[in-house]
Each structure stands twice: as structure tokens, then as C-alpha cells.
Amino acid sequence: MPFFSSTEEVQKIMEALWYEIREHQEIALPLLQSKLIVQFHYREPEGRLTVDCSDGQNMLIIWGEYDKKPIVEMFMKADVAHQFWLGNVNVPVYLISGRIVAKGPVNRALALLPVVKPAFKIYPNIFEDTLNRPLVSA
Amino acid sequence: MNTFVFQSPTKVCFGEYLSATAFEVAKDMGAERPLIITDKFLVASGILEPLLNGVRDGGVEPIIFSDVPPDSDVESVNRAAQFGLEQACDAIIAVGGGSVMDTAKAANICLSLGGDLLDYQGLNNIEDPLRPLVAIPTTAGTGSEVSFVAMIKDSAEHRKLVFGSRHLAPNVAILDPVLLISLPPKLTAATGLDALTHGLEALVATVTNSAVSDALAIESARLIFEYLPRATSNGDDMEARSATLVASTMAGIAFSNSGVGIIHALAHATGARFNTHHGITNAVYLPHGMRFNLEYSNAIYGRAARALGFSSSMDDNEASEALVKAVERLLKEVGLPTELKQLGVPEMNEEELQEWVNLVVEDPAIIFNPREASVEDIIGIYKRAY
Ligand SMILES: NC(=O)c1ccc[n+]([C@@H]2O[C@H](COP(=O)([O-])OP(=O)(O)OC[C@H]3O[C@@H](n4cnc5c(N)ncnc54)[C@H](O)[C@@H]3O)[C@@H](O)[C@H]2O)c1
Ligand SMILES: [Fe+2]
């Protein structure tokens, strides 16, 4: 059974997480410097989130349709995203086995993996605060 | 044991003069008008004759695209695909080195799915099977005849673009050692070292590797250590040509499942920036990259050193050092350069170095490396290799 019960749940969590990331200089700054527009496509449940760093100053976080063309797109189950932010996804394994699909100059996005690692510590709190349910029972 | 996935969708056929069967093989997959992708040198050399005669015997005049430069770029791929479309080709036979095979794999995307090549950049991004592709290597190095990736140069940006999908794996690889007789000593040595690097990097890609790919990597390394000096010093030595060719395919299957590592990331960045040959560049970085990883890989390298007979010590540090030393001896024996400056890599100022380091950090190969490398680490390896 998928971890998130609805698209709304995915939206709430991913938006809250990225709003928090935006406040953490050590994560936000390198992302802004990359000037990437990364779009995440989730399935089971469906959802789409874009993180637009293209102007190098402000990180735009948009749920749903977005009119700018993303530079990199990542496609995965929402469960994979959840496990990723918990620090449980071994990205090389998921890429080799095809469980994560990456479109565009993936190398630029992969180079940012070490940068977002500190967010693994933020995620459990975000999760519990936003959904009012503990991680463990899930 | 780690969970792992292992797949190798390519049928592998080995035999002297087997390239003559390429058309039949394509026909068995339903093809009537295969596009032959190769390079100008190979056409002029005459080594394609058995293959071309095979096509003629099948009642078809060969359709050849040979405008492939070493380290193929987006423009060449587009030209090849366009030509294939104009000629209504329904399959591809790629015969050449890694540059030709990668061009064919990328051109097959456009030929099969249409649209702009750049839209298919990425990993696992191609969802549908492509047209039948028969790959016939004429170098024993890249493993592209069985791998799931194609690396295509973006000449304007001096970087390699990555296309990775299991649908890119050729349907059939024909290994015909006769095609390699004309490969000069330096390229024989360089491509052999590319294959050795594939095996030795796949072996230590600890999060993705498996006993299945380790077995391929170790046996492939054994064949290369034993036969590469012979293939290099006497190009007519069929036994040595055969062994190194099979070894490179085995290493290709190993790294397709386990990944490569920092040595390839360094070689890709250096090649993209300074047009150095992929195999020679790997060769220069190989001992330095192995030493960088030693602390994390000594158990596996130690085991490999014992399996390959380079050490009988049960001390992994001692045994893995013996493996690095064996690599250094092999480099000497086959007459390859051991310093970047010998490849014509110019000294970089701080700013150039930073830009180049970014290419290394952004290379997908680096995520499979057992040890994380900081910017300082990368510059350190570069300086030691210079
Ligand atoms: N897709 C993959 O899995 C993979 C893996 C490693 C490397 N590569 C790519 O492969 C390329 C390098 O390929 P390569 O090392 O095979 O070299 P290459 O294909 O660039 O060929 C080098 C030269 O050797 C000549 N040559 C080839 N076969 C010959 C023969 N039998 N006799 C005489 N000359 C011959 C070619 O004409 C060319 O001039 C790089 O672009 C690299 O990025 C791809
Ligand atoms: Fe290689």
C-alpha cells in the first residue's frame, strides 16, 4: 500500500519540506548557485513539484502545473521520495535498477545529492508536524 | 548480502569471421534495411568486407554511414539518424570502436522514436524498445556492445551527455577478433586499459555490485593482465586478441550492472576538456584512483589480488597494494604514458581547475565510487597524476 493516502498529503509534505529547505542557507545556497529548475513527478499518489532556482536569488516552489520548462525531471513513486528524504534510498541502486527515472542533464542534479543530505534530518519533524501522524506507525 | 539487480539483455556471439553473419542476425530480428554505422578509417581499411559481402549475399546493397569522428558528438548522431530515416532503415549494425557504437546507440533513439536527441538525455528515460541493434566492436575496450549507456559529446559545452537505459543495450553483440588485427599497439593498450578500469571500478562499486558482476570483473581482469601485453606487442596473435576482446565484453557487463567510479569521472572530465583518448586517460588515472579508494576497497582488491595471483598475503592492505603495483607494471609493459602532461593536458590555472573539477563532481560515474571525494581530493588526484 502506498505510504501517502492522497495527492494532498504528498503536496503538504513536499511543500513544507521545500519551504524549510529554502530557509537553510547551507542547503539553499548551492541549489540557487546551480540555477537548475528541477521538476519532481510523483506517482501513487500522483503529484508534481517544481523547484525553480533559475534566477540564482529566489527559490520558487510550485506544486502542480508550471509554465517554465524544467531543466531536469525526476520521476518516481511518492514512496520512493518519502524513503529518499528519510535517507533510506540508495540512489545509485535505484538508478541502476530503473526505480528512479531522470530526464535531462542528470549529472547536474546528481552533483547536488550531497548538498541536500542535511535535509534528511529535517524531514521526520516536517512529516510529523504536517501530517499529525508519527513516522513509525506508517 | 546486499540486494542487487543484474541484467544483461544482449546476446553475445564470439567467433573468427563472425562479422560476416551480421546481416543474417539483423534479418532474424525482422530487419530488411539495416543501416551500417562505422567510421571512415574502417571503411578504407577493408576489414568490413566480409560483413559487407554478407549484406550483399542477402540481396541488399549496404547502406553505410561512416562520418563518425572519435568521441562522437550530437551533430554526428543527428546526421546518422537523419541518413537512416532518409534511407528508410529499420535496424542498425554498428561496427567500430566505442565512438561508433555510442553514435549508433544514440542514433537508434532518434531513428526509432523520432524527435530531438537531447530530449532523451538522462537515465531510464527511454521507455520503449528501439529498433534492432547489432554491435560489432573493433576495439577491445569500451564494452559498449553490451552496455546500457551512450556518452555523446556536446562540443559547444565541452562536456559529455549521458544517455542510459536498458533499451540502449544492443540486441546482439558479435565479437570477431579478426577485426582487431589492424588495431595499432597504442590503441590496443589504451582500450585494454579502459576495459581493465571497467572491471576494477565495478568490483569496488560496493553499493551496487554483486557476486555475479564480481565474477565477470575478476575473470576479465585476469584475461587482460595475461593477454594484453601479447595483443599489444603482436597484433596478429589471435589467441590474445580473442581473450582481450571477450574480457572487454565481460567487463562491460560488469560495469553496466555495478557502475564505474572516480577514475571514469576523472577521465570523462579530462577527455571532454582536452580531447584525450578515453582509454589512455583512464590508464593514467587508474593507479591513483585505486590508491585513493584503497582504504575503502582493500578487502575486495585484496581478494582480487589473491585470485589473480599477485599476492598470497592474507593482509588486505598488502595484497591490494600488490594489485596496484601489478597495474603499474602492466602500464609500463604495454608502453602507456603514466602522466597527464604526456597526454598534452596543459597546466590549469585556479579558475580552469575549478571549472574542470565541476565536470568531475557532476559526472554520474562518481556516485558509484566507494569513497566520497571532496574538491580537494579531486585536485589532489589530478596533481599526483599530472
Ligand atoms: N557506452 C559505453 O559503455 C562506453 C564505455 C567506455 C567508453 N565509451 C566511449 O567510447 C569512446 C572510445 O572508444 P574506443 O576506445 O573504442 O575508441 P574510438 O572508437 O574512439 O576509436 C579510436 C580510433 O581507433 C580507430 N579504430 C577502431 N577500430 C580499429 C581497428 N580495428 N583497427 C584500426 N583502427 C581502429 C578508429 O578509427 C578511431 O580513429 C569514447 O567516446 C568513450 O566515451 C563508451
Ligand atoms: Fe570506459
Question: How are the elements arranged and paired?
Answer:
The complex is a heterodimer of chains A (138) and B (386).
Chain A: H1 7-23, H2 25-34, E1 37-43, E2 47-52, E3 60-63, E4 72-77, H3 78-85, H4 91-96, E5 101-103, H5 106-110, H6 113-116, H7 119-131
Parallel strand pairs in A: 1-4
Antiparallel strand pairs in A: 1-2, 2-3, 4-5
Chain B: E1 11-14, H1 22-28, E2 34-37, H2 40-45, H3 49-57, E3 63-65, H4 74-86, E4 91-96, H5 98-113, E5 122-123, E6 133-137, E7 149-154, E8 159-164, E9 172-175, H6 185-204, H7 211-233, H8 238-258, H9 262-274, H10 278-307, H11 316-333, H12 350-361, H13 375-385
Parallel strand pairs in B: 1-9, 2-3, 2-4, 4-6, 5-8, 6-9
Antiparallel strand pairs in B: 7-8
Bound molecules: nicotinamide-adenine-dinucleotide and fe (ii) ion.
Fe (ii) ion (FE2) binds at residues 142, 194, 198, 264, 278, 282 of chain B.
Question: What would you say this structure looks like, in words?
Answer:
Chain A has seven helices and five strands, in the order ααββββααβααα. Chain A is α+β, with helices and mostly antiparallel strands and 138 residues long. Chain A has a five-stranded mixed β-sheet with strand order 3-2-1-4-5. In chain A, α1 crosses α7. The mean pLDDT of chain A is 92. Chain B has 386 residues and is α/β, with parallel strands linked by helices. Chain B folds into two domains: 169 residues, Rossmann fold (3-Layer(aba) Sandwich); 202 residues, Dehydroquinate synthase-like - alpha domain (Dehydroquinate synthase-like, alpha domain, Up-down Bundle). Chain B contains 13 helices and nine strands. In chain B, the strands form two sheets. Chain B has a six-stranded parallel β-sheet, sandwiched between helices. In chain B, a hairpin with a 4-residue loop joins β7 and β8. Classes of the chains: A alpha+beta (138), B alpha/beta (386). Chains A and B meet through α4, β5 and α5 of A and β5 and β8 of B. The structure holds nicotinamide-adenine-dinucleotide and fe (ii) ion. Fe (ii) ion (FE2) binds next to α6 and α10 of chain B.
